[in-house]
Every structure is written in C-alpha cells, then in structure tokens.
Amino acid sequence: MHVPPAFRLDRATSLAFAARRGFGLVVAHDGVRPVASPLPFHLDYASDGTPRAQFHVARANPLAALAASGGTSGGDWLIAVAGADAYVSPDWYVSPDQVPTWLYEAVHLSGPARVVPDVRAHLDRMTEAFEPKAAGVQPWRADRVTPGRLAAMAQAIVAVEVAVEEVEGSAKLNQTKSDADFAAVALRLRENAEPMARQISDRMVALRPHLSYEREKDVCDA
Description:
- There is one protein chain.
- About 30% of the residues lie in helices and about 30% in strands.
- The chain is an alpha+beta fold.
- It has a single domain, classed as Pnp Oxidase, Chain A, CATH 2.30.110.10.
- The strands form two sheets. Strands 2-1-5-6-9 form a five-stranded antiparallel beta sheet.
- A hairpin with a 5-residue loop joins strand 3 (about 40-45) and strand 4 (about 50-60).
- Helix 5 packs antiparallel against helix 6.
- The longest helix is centred in the last third of the chain and has 13 residues, at about 195-205.
- Residues about 220 have low confidence and may be disordered.
C-alpha cells in the first residue's frame, strides 16, 4: 500500500485498528490470478510477539485449497482492512484552488498462511472475540449446538492463520491542510447524512481538538 508520510499510522496503532475492526478482504494468489474473500478475523499474538490473524472459509472456497497446499504458491497473503471513508468537495474548503479528494482509514496485514488443525479451538476463539461485542446477556458458545450438527459444520470449513510479518496503515484525514481548511471540512462531514462521513469527522476532530468546529452564526444589526 502506498502511504504518504503525513498519513502513515505506526505499527501499534495499525494493529489496534485491525483488531478492533475484525473484518477485511483476504487476498491470496493461486499462481495465475488473485483469489479473495471478505471475512471476519481474530487478531492475537504468538509467544514471540508475532501478530496472528485467524479466520475460516468454506471448504469449497479456493482459499482453503491454497492454505492446505502451504499457502505459498503466490507468496504472502494480504488482509486489507478498511475503516470509514468519505468524499470531500473542493467547495468545502476556505482556501481557493482546491480539488476533490477522498478521506479514509485502512490497514494492510500480510504474511504466510497455514491451516489451523484444531477447528473447534479456532471456533471457540472467534466466538470469545466477537460475542461480547453483541452485548448479549449470556454470550453464545459452540457447545449450545448439538454435537452432530457442530461436527458437520466444523467439517465444512477450513481454519486459516496468517502470521503477520508486514503491517501498513494509512489514515488520510486532511493532515496536510491548514487549520481553517481542516476545520471547515470536518464541520461539513459532521453535518453529512452519511454515517461514515461523520466517523471521519470525529477522527479529524480528535487530531486537532483545539480548533473550533462550530458554524459561525450570522449577526444582524438591531
């Protein structure tokens, strides 16, 4: 991923973003063409500190066969994790001579893949990671499914782990703009009907909390 220095996220911030998001586009190469699937994943760490991203795919998914063959026929696998994004109109800036742009957050994780042999342990880890986010009073567990059905479903998937060797993160949030232009765009995004536009606005405000993000009121003579 091309990351201009002004937008670069450090490794720890990028990993925290990916872990919090927990969903991305998993991409491999079969030696002829790219193979990709959008998948949830769980990020944890090996004893030596190496980040590991685990996910599972249907056994019929081409990614399953690639992982079973060692996952290396086309080199490292990539997990592209996207956050919020939003279009910015040139008319939103205070300064003239601006051009359209798109603000976004994204992290790329890459490394070799392998099959995880213990599917049940993998499913338990995934459930433990995501169930608390569902805010259930009693988090769901795999043992609430009848053993026969659970075994059949486990047989229908392949668990995969990517050992993350490279971490790239980019948050393009108008960091190169003046305070006046920065605040003007953040305000317009905050007033936007799109939820992701408002999320980008929140990220911008967090970068420069000292600025004013209120629209000036017209003052009329009495």
